[in-house]
């Protein structure tokens, strides 16, 4: 094939068939499950978007970050007060 030629559009499908034939019998069911999953997805439809609903109110100490480090340091056995 020379540069600029369009590859055969059927080549990937033929390769997939060849590879499927090479799958050992004990793994065919796993390959089939993967293919079924891929076949369900239509390129023209988007998967449904997840909706994350959160409501949060933070009412904590103003120096909570420093305090959290102190608590972790105390619980984990001391060490330097400086972070990396």
| Helix/strand order | HHH
Percent range of helical residues: 40-55%
Head-to-tail CA distance between termini:
55 Å
Radius of gyration: 28 Å
Q: State mean pLDDT (0 to 100 scale).
A: 77
Largest sheet: none
Approximately how much beta-strand content do the residues carry? under 5%
Task: Pick out the low-confidence regions.
Answer: none
Detailed description of the structure:
- The chain has 84 residues and is mainly alpha-helical.
- It has three helices and no strands.
- The longest helix is centred in the middle third of the chain and has 13 residues, at 28-40.
- It is elongated.
- The two termini are 55 Å apart.
- The relative contact order is 0.05.
Topology overview:
Blueprint: H1 11-22, H2 28-40, H3 64-76
In summary, what is this structure?
This protein is mainly alpha-helical and 84 residues long. The protein has helices at residues 11-22, 28-40, 64-76.
């Amino acid at each position: 094939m020379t540069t600029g030629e369009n590859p055969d559009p059927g080549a990937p499908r033929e390769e997939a068939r060849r590879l499927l034939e090479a799958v050992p019998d004990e793994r065919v069911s796993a390959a089939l499950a993967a293919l079924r999953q891929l076949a369900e997805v239509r390129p023209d439809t988007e998967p449904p978007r997840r909706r994350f609903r959160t409501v949060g109110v933070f009412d904590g100490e103003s120096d909570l970050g420093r305090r959290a480090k102190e608590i972790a340091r105390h619980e984990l056995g001391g060490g330097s007060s400086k972070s990396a």
